[in-house]
Specification:
It is an enzyme of class 5 (isomerase). This protein is an alpha/beta fold. It has 11 helices and 20 strands. It folds into 2 domains: 214 residues, TIM Barrel (Alpha-Beta Barrel), CATH 3.20.20; 126 residues, Lyase, Ornithine Decarboxylase, Chain A, domain 1 (Beta Barrel). The protein binds pyridoxal-5'-phosphate. The site of pyridoxal-5'-phosphate has 12 residues, from loops.
C-alpha cells in the first residue's frame, strides 16, 4: 500500500478516514470493457479526480494497462496529468476560453472544438505558435449542452477543412440517456451522429475517430461503439443506473473506511447530535466516527445511512456533522479503532455507492465525486 495524497505522514499515521483503491480491480474493469468493445479504442475518463479515486494514480494505472487515451473535463486536470509525466493523448471535453488555447497547445493536449468560432481561435493560436493543434469536433445530437447542432455540423466540418493549423483527429457527440431503459432518444442521437459522419464519405475524405459511447452506450448500444468508447463510471466498477443492462461484469474498486474514535452508552431519551433529531427509548451503545459532510459524507445521510462494523450493519444516529457521525450499535460490540466501512465490503456485508445514493437522494456518480480531497487516498 502507498499513501498518495499525504506525504506528511507515513501509512500508519495518516488519517483513519481514508479511501482505499484497488488498482488491480480498475485494470480488470478496463480489460472487461476492452473485451466487450472489440476493436474500438478505449479512452479512460478520469475527470473529477477520477470519480473520486485519485486523478494521477488512476491515470498512471490506465496508461500502464495500455489504454489508448485519457479524457478529462478541464484544462487544469489535463495539465496536472502532464506535470505528473503522463504522455498519453488527453482529450479535454469542456469548453475553452481563448486565453487557455496556448496552454493546451504547449502541453500537447487535444482540444474540443464545439463551434466554428472556437475552431478559428484554435487555428489562429496554433498558427502564431508555428504548430498544429490536435482537435476533436463536438456535435450536439440531443443533449443541448456543448457542441454545434447536428443540423449545422456540416458548416463546422467545412470550416475544419480550411483550418490549416488544426489536425481534426476526432469527431464526437454525447448521449443524454443511453443508460435508460427506454433507448429511443439515444437511438435518435446515434442516427443524427451517423448522418453528420456521412459528410466524410460524401466528400471522399478520411473519417476522423468517431465516438459517442459513454458507459450507458457501451453497455446498451453496441452499434454506438464506433472507433472509440469513453467509459467513466463503469471503469470504477459502478453501473450508470439501476435500469441499465449489466452486459459487462465489473466490480467496485473503492473502499471508504474510517474507525471507531469514541465509544459510549447513551441513556434513554438523550438526543444525539445537532438538532436533537434522534433518541432512543432505552439505553444504547453509540460510537463516534471521524467522518462528516466536510469529507463528502452527505448531510442528507443523517438518520438514513448504515455503516459496517465487525461484519454488522448499523445505522447513523442523528445528524451528520461536518467532521463526525454517531452510529447506533444497539447492543452490538465495537472497540476503539475498530474498522468502520462507509462504502465497500466487510465480511458478508456491503454498502454500495448505489446504497449511499439512494439514502442521500442522489446518484452514485455524485457519491463518488463528492468524496473530498481531504480524505487521503491509499492504493494497493
Ligand atoms: C463524463 C463523460 C463521459 C463518461 O461518462 P460515464 O457515464 O461516466 O461513462 C464520457 N464522455 C464525456 C464527454 C463525458 O463528459
Amino acid at each position: 500500500m502507498s499513501a498518495a495524497s499525504s506525504n506528511l505522514f507515513d501509512d500508519e499515521s495518516i488519517r483513519p478516514t481514508r479511501v482505499e483503491v484497488d488498482l488491480g480491480q480498475l485494470s480488470r474493469n478496463l480489460a472487461a470493457i476492452r473485451a466487450h468493445v472489440g476493436s474500438a479504442k478505449v479512452m479512460a475518463v478520469v475527470k473529477a479526480n477520477a470519480y473520486g479515486h485519485g486523478l494521477v494514480a488512476v491515470a498512471q494505472e490506465m496508461v500502464r494497462c495500455g489504454v489508448d487515451s485519457l479524457g478529462v473535463a478541464l484544462l487544469e486536470e489535463a495539465v496536472i496529468l502532464r506535470q505528473a509525466g503522463i504522455t498519453a493523448p488527453i482529450l479535454v471535453f469542456g469548453g475553452i476560453a481563448e486565453t487557455q488555447i496556448p496552454i493546451f497547445i504547449r502541453h500537447d493536449l487535444t482540444l474540443t472544438a464545439p463551434s466554428i468560432d472556437k475552431l478559428r481561435l484554435i487555428d489562429n493560436a496554433a498558427s502564431s505558435m508555428g504548430v498544429t493543434a490536435r482537435v476533436h469536433l463536438k456535435v450536439d445530437t440531443g443533449m443541448e449542452r456543448l457542441g454545434i447542432h447536428h443540423y449545422s455540423a456540416e458548416k463546422l466540418q467545412q470550416a475544419s477543412l480550411q483550418a490549416k493549423h488544426v489536425q481534426v483527429e476526432g469527431i464526437y457527440s454525447h448521449f443524454a440517456n443511453a443508460d435508460a431503459a427506454d433507448l429511443t432518444h439515444a437511438r435518435t442521437q446515434l442516427e443524427r451522429f451517423l448522418e453528420v459522419l456521412s459528410f466524410y464519405e460524401k466528400h471522399s475524405l478520411p473519417t476522423p475517430l468517431r465516438h459517442i459511447a459513454n458507459s450507458g452506450g457501451i453497455l446498451q448500444l453496441p452499434e454506438s461503439h464506433l472507433d472509440l468508447v469513453r467509459p467513466g463510471i463503469m471503469l470504477y466498477g459502478v453501473y450508470p443506473s439501476e435500469e441499465c443492462a449489466r452486459s459487462v461484469l465489473i466490480q467496485p474498486a473503492l473502499t471508504w473506511k474510517s474507525h471507531v474514535a469514541y465509544f459510549k452508552v447513551v441513556q434513554s431519551n438523550s438526543p444525539v447530535s445537532y438538532g436533537s433529531t434522534w433518541e432512543s427509548d432505552h439505553a444504547v451503545r453509540v460510537v463516534t466516527v471521524p467522518v462528516g459532510y466536510g469529507d463528502g459524507y452527505f448531510r442528507a445521510l443523517s438518520n438514513k445511512a448504515e455503516v459496517i462494523i465487525r461484519g454488522q450493519r448499523h445505522p447513523v444516529a442523528g445528524r451528520v456533522c461536518m467532521d463526525q457521525i454517531m452510529v447506533n450499535l444497539e447492543w452490538g460490540t465495537a472497540y476503539y479503532r475498530d474498522e468502520v466501512i462507509l462504502l465497500g465490503k466487510q465480511g458478508k456485508q456491503q454498502v454500495t455507492a448505489e446504497d449511499l445514493a439512494n439514502w442521500a437522494g442522489t446518484i452514485p456518480y455524485e457519491v463518488l465525486t463528492n468524496i473530498n480531497t481531504r480524505v487521503p487516498r491509499v492504493y494497493y
